[in-house]
């Protein structure tokens, strides 16, 4: 059995993080304080910590690496979902007006590791990737 991961990320504004992770993504909120808030990200613990160095207009800095003809933001995080969860998330994100950094598509089509994937940024500039495999056994296939 896979156990949940814990990830803490910087955000520029806690209320903004609540609106995005709680409202846009629909992640249930857990514990919180003035400078941090926990979210249930598909069964995993995501903690948004206020980072005053980002400022109201600040964003986390990232670069991109080429993968399958796309500019993949690094660093990034996300969750491997079932194909049904992924398709539902795509619909939710589109309905919420989320702008994709990489539009939902099938990566490595017809190859080992074929996967549905998408990328977008939260308001603080943290890059997120959600993916799904037709066959989860392909997750680490070479």
TrEMBL record:
Transmembrane segments: none annotated. Residues 3-133 form the VOC domain. Pfam families: Glyoxalase. PANTHER family: PTHR39434, VOC DOMAIN-CONTAINING PROTEIN. This is Glyoxalase. It comes from Pelomicrobium methylotrophicum.
